[in-house]
Automatic annotation (TrEMBL):
This is Isoaspartyl peptidase/L-asparaginase GA20639. The lineage of its organism: Eukaryota, Metazoa, Ecdysozoa, Arthropoda, Hexapoda. InterPro entries: ASRGL1_meta, Ntn_hydrolases_N, Peptidase_T2. Belongs to the Ntn-hydrolase family. One of its GO terms (biological process) is proteolysis. It catalyses: Cleavage of a beta-linked Asp residue from the N-terminus of a polypeptide; L-asparagine + H2O = L-aspartate + NH4(+). The keyword Protease applies. Keywords: Autocatalytic cleavage, Hydrolase, Protease, Signal. Heterodimer of an alpha and beta chain produced by autocleavage.
Amino acid sequence: MLKQIIFISICVLFALVIESGAMKPIIIVHGGAGDISESRIQGKFDGVKVAVRAGYEKLMNGGSALDSVEAAVVSMELDENFNAGYGSVLNLNGEVEMEASIMWGQDLISGAVTLIKEFQHPISIARKVLTDTPHSFLGGNGAKLFALEKGFQQVPPESLISESAKEALNDFLNKGDDQRTEIGRKDEGGVGTVGAVAIDADGHIAVATSTGGINGKMVGRIGDTPLIGGGTYADDNVGGISTTDFFLGHGESILKYCLAHTIIKLMEGGLDADTATRQAVNGMTARLNNTAGAITLSKNGDVGIHFSSKRMAWAYVKNDKVYYGIEHDQTLEEPL
Ligand code: ASP
C-alpha cells in the first residue's frame, strides 16, 4: 500500500513538473472586424494565414513572443487586404497617418506610435519605442525623428497608398457622412486593422496592433489602436488581447470602453478567455451602440475570439494546426 502511494505521488509530481515546464507556444492574429464583403474574404483568409505562420515560425525558432507578434503584423502591413502599412486608409487630405502599439506582458512595458506617414512598418518603430526609450508613446514629427535615428528607411508617403484606398476616399468625399466606413465603400467591405497575440516557450505574452485608422478621418485624428488598454494589452499573469472595430463609430468606441483592458479585468476576475472576450465586446456594443472584435489568449493558452460586427478575419496556430475563420461560429482548419 505504502509503495503504491509513493508511486502515485511520484507520478503526480512528475506530471506537475512537466506541466509547469516549457509552455507550448501559440499565436493568434486578426485582420479586422467589420462589414467585410464576400469579395474580400479570400484575400483576408490568405493574409491572416500567411501572418500567423510568419509569427509561429519565429516562436518555433526560439524567438520571443515579441518577435512573433511583430513578424505577424509586419506581414499584414505589407498586404493591401489590410488597413495597416501599405493599403492604409486615407485622411481628409489624402494622406496615410498610421498608428501602432506593442506590449510585453512580463513587466507591462509598451511602445506605441501615431501619425506615421513615411515608414512601411509602424509596428517595428513601436517596438523600438518599447526597447530603446524611457517612454511609451511617440507621435508625429518626434516619432519620425526617432525612426530615422534608429535607421528605419523613409519611403515616399505615396508609395503606401493603394488604388483601393484612393477610391475609398473619393467615394467618401463624394457621398458624405452616411457612407463613412473604414474603407469608405460599403459595397467593398473593409480592409481592417490588424493585430497579433502570442505566448512564447518561456510563457511570456506579447501583443501588437497596427492600423491606418478610419477612412476620411480628420488630419491628426488618433484612434484606439495605439492606446494601451484600448487596442492592445498584455500581462503574463493574465493574458493578452488585440482589438478591432470598424463600422460607424470606429475605434472611438473601443477607446472609450478601454476594451482590451476590460477583457483583462474580466479574466482577472475569474472569467475564461472566451467568456471574457464575448462579455466585454457585447458590453461595449450594448453601451455604445457600435460593433467591435477582439482576440484573446489566456496565460494558459486558451483562446477567445468574439466580434459583434458581421465578420472578423482571424487565425491561430495550436498543436501544429492552423485554425481560421471569418463568419460567426466558423472554425476551419488545415495542417501547419
Ligand atoms: N482601430 C481602427 C480605428 O482607428 C478601427 C479598426 O480597428 O478597424 O478606428
